[in-house]
Design brief:
With 168 residues, this protein is mainly α. Helix content is 80%, strand content 0%. The radius of gyration is 17 Å and the shape is globular.
Length: 168
């Protein structure tokens, strides 16, 4: 897990500094997770690691599609999945989502953009309801600006740390 923590530390550093997570972290992290899982637990470990990476990417992909997080966050959570495997990825996901909510609310309160955030939530909610009714929302409403952007690598790292703390 030292390698995962190193990757997460670097991802948080870059995400805080530039709001980008370098692809080299993902390119190094995925194979490292796969190899370590295979060495530790053979073919079952490798398969669990592959499944964890796939689940990690799969559950974060809708957040990317709705522009709630960046592609780097999706890929980083895939790396986390490669290290923790399919057996633990949902626990880490839960802790990361909770941490993301805490970080998001804190950033929103500090930014003073709560009005814009509430407007964006309304637009998102109405858009989903209209799509379920096979209708579309006017384009002028869909062009909502972000109220606040957070470095989600911080939430992912916090989720992993909570998981590690609860599972020594």
């Amino acid at each position: 897990m030292i390698i995962l923590l190193l990757i997460l530390g670097l991802a948080v550093f870059f995400d805080l500094r530039s709001r980008r997570i370098p692809n080299v972290l993902v390119a190094a992290g995925l194979p490292a997770g796969f190899i370590l899982a295979a060495v530790a637990n053979g073919l079952d470990g490798l398969l669990g690691s592959l499944a964890g990476a796939g689940i990690g990417i799969g559950v974060f992909l809708p957040f990317f599609v709705f522009r709630l997080i960046g592609a780097g966050d999706v890929k980083l959570f895939g790396v986390v999945g490669a290290f923790v495997g399919q057996a633990h990825i949902f626990q880490v996901l839960l802790y990361s989502l909770i941490a993301g909510g805490v970080v998001g609310v804190g950033a929103l309160l500090l930014s003073g953009n709560t009005g814009r955030a509430l407007h964006n939530f309304r637009v998102f909610f109405v858009s989903v309801v209209l799509r379920m009714q096979h209708e579309v929302m006017p384009l002028s409403e869909l062009a909502a600006q972000s109220a606040v952007r957070i470095p989600y690598a911080l939430a992912i790292a916090a989720g992993v740390l909570v998981w590690l703390g609860l599972n020594p």
